[in-house]
Amino acid sequence: MISWSFRDPFQLVRSREKRNAVRAILRSSFDQWEKALGGYLLFIEKPDRKFELISDKPNNVNIDIYFARGYHGCKEAMDGRGGIVAHSKFPPKGVLHLDADERWSIDGKRGVDLRYTLLHEIGHLLGMRHLIRKDAIMNPEYQSTPETPKLSYFDRRALYRLYQLHKYQ
What we know:
Blueprint (H helix, E strand, L loop, with lengths): L1 E5 L9 H21 L6 E3 L17 E6 L17 E3 L6 E5 L4 E2 L6 E2 H12 L27 H10 L7
Parallel strand pairs: 1-2, 1-3, 3-5, 6-7
Antiparallel strand pairs: 4-5
Helix pairs in contact: 1-2
């Protein structure tokens, strides 16, 4: 079981509606990876609490997710609009940071597709590296699509190999 939490230590996601939309996309992204793993790993959302400082990462959470600007307490600073949109750390670090200066889209129509970005970055959190297949979510090049992003056969196959599941669907 892997726990995750979306929090807003810099108070960059101002409305409750937007925070709920981010959480819904996160749940959907984690669900896709969980289904691909066939129950091998379960993802549990932990409720966010008010954290005053960036260093206040909850102790009971494996994956800490938030939007940030510039230098925000880790080795990689955010670079503003148009550059690196997010970064995450391979296990056991468990952090996923999104650049608050990007023009984010929750439906893939305008701006950087939050659905695609979260699905890709969660793959890194699971230990996945980039794949050279253009149709793979784990391709290093951002790919915008109006469709709901989905894991490809190649993403699932690489995941099975990583976790030694030997079940290619």
